[in-house]
Amino acid sequence: MSSHRDRRIGVALLAMATLGSGSALAAPQNGWEEHTSSSSSNSSLGTFPVDCAASHNNNRGAIRYANPVSDATVISVWNLNSTVFPPAPLGVLGGPGIKSGFGTILSSSPLGGYQPSDRIRLSNTVGVSIGSGESSPGSGLDETYIEVFNLTAPIALSFPQYVESTPVTDPLWQYTRAGRAHDVELTRDSQWAVVNSDNWIHVVHIPSNTVHPFNIGLLDYSNPAAPVPWQTSPTAGRECTPNWSVDSVAVTNERAVVTTARASNIVNGFTTWVYVIDLSDPNGAGLPTMALQHEILPDVGTQFPTEFGDWPHDIAITPVTDVESGNDPLAVVTTRHSVACYNLASNVFLNSIYDKAEQREYQWQVDSVEMTLKVAITIGDRILDLGGGLSSLIWQVKFFELNTVTGINQFQLYSGIDSEDDDRAHDLGISVSDLKGLVRTSFNNVVLTDLTNPPPQPQALPPIPSLSDAHAYHAYASTTGYAVFSSDSVAIGTLQDDNGVQRLMAVSIGAEASAGVWSGVADIIDLNAATPSILGAVPIASNGTDSQGCVPTDLAVSVIQSGTPPTTEVVVRSTDPLVEAFNAPGPDLVRIQILPTASIGTLHRYGGSGSTLGLDSLAVPPLSGLIRVENSRRKLSIAQDEFLSPSGVDYIHIAN
Known about the structure:
This protein is mostly beta strands. The protein contains four helices and 44 strands. The strands form eleven sheets. Strands 16, 17, 18, 19 and 20 form a five-stranded antiparallel beta sheet that branches. Strands 25, 26, 27, 28 and 29 form a five-stranded antiparallel beta sheet that branches. The longest helix has 16 residues, at 4-19. The chain is globular, with a radius of gyration of 24 Å. It starts with a helix and ends with a strand.
């Protein structure tokens, strides 16, 4: 009998031979297609999809790849509104003149891997993607890559790929080195893209195809008109890195907020630096301007008590509808131990609050801050001293009142109880219009029934009928050997009518292990109920032939769907390395109906190939966080097989 690994390789190679370059199998009845670019004659194995995105209107999907030894396939663009299924790619960018670069390297240390936040962003008309590689193999001289491309056929770069290279002989090279691109954001009006890459912030003016670089590693921007070098000593330790942040760039049409970490000469450890860039051209010169640079200095005396420092974690900005109504935009930045507030109308730091007993970590919290006009909500883990050198971590939710002059003021705190050892915070979602939210912890759904007037005690709903774990992907990766990246575990829809009842449906995901096999579970909750409860726990079961099972890693809610009455569904993407036939049901992508509530349950289960290591494994429109699924719109997701000899295969999945 062949081994599990042998069966997987055989099926995958058969799929590659059948697909060929850019082709697809006949559409199965369940409307699920799988593509790979690695079998192309002008590519090589190891072209991994590292991130995917959808346009605001969900008409286009695009994927950024990484392959350090081949540049044949760097970006692919797909028509998600095609009348033909399966759709063919609108275009593939790669080959001479465009570089691919490194993939993601997960690590428990901010200095031990390549841990980017986002690698691709789309509006309705343009896309921006980023990558990082080396100027030559093994040189250690890293580069940053920026690509801007149109979303209308024929797909093409708007201008040649921008490359920021590390100098070879610069005595201050650690301050001027390109670094590895970490995060990219695109303004709603498609005028600006902002890229954070270690020692550099690159601001791209898209209409003029102009890149404006800010070298924050070398230059002190306290005087934006005439920045000067930080110090002349090459060992001063002022270089920057945003590594280990879940988001390090946030934008409005007129401002960009960028975070990074650098070694502090005031305290023993790293501190968070925040940069505000004015995109509104205040001087009439057609140039973005550095409006503020600020170091968040926690009140810890001369050193941090137990660790390396106060690393940046996440950013949120006042919702765009409130900014468009004339309210001053505020930015709230979370770090490992701090929360800080900035007024983006006056470009000033307002205040910060440090809590050394609270911590946030990359890939333990996948989001840590959300905002309404008046309130900011943050999540993290509180460190509990159990005595005898032992400690545990429990989830914590904080509510902050927002003021455009004084900043943040904490007015409520929710926390787990001592008996819940290592029940850690994972993800946070809110409904800005309905002022409700949901926090997914390892073993609880914490319902935020009122964001502005929260009750004294939280309502925590343990997953039923079993305790699925939102952090299961950590154990799954360590026991199976498959690296896993989790993007989201909470999705919230909009207020919908359900046979005369107004419901605000939310979904959270986790997984549990039984007899060594992992199975995903989706918890369905109505946040608008007088007493919210779990209305259904829908299993995302693995196939009986899979010896390892699956864990869910990403999800999104569809609120527009054909039918009478209209239905609402959640789409859940899971890691399931077992290769399955294209027409076989499986857990790779599962559609679950959540409205009407009388019909909660699985609609379709799609099988496929590969493990989810993309920063986002499911393409979701960036503004609403919701998928619009109508008759012709498709769902796009990505996966990869990092073990298939010699160096792996990429997979694109498209569901009808």
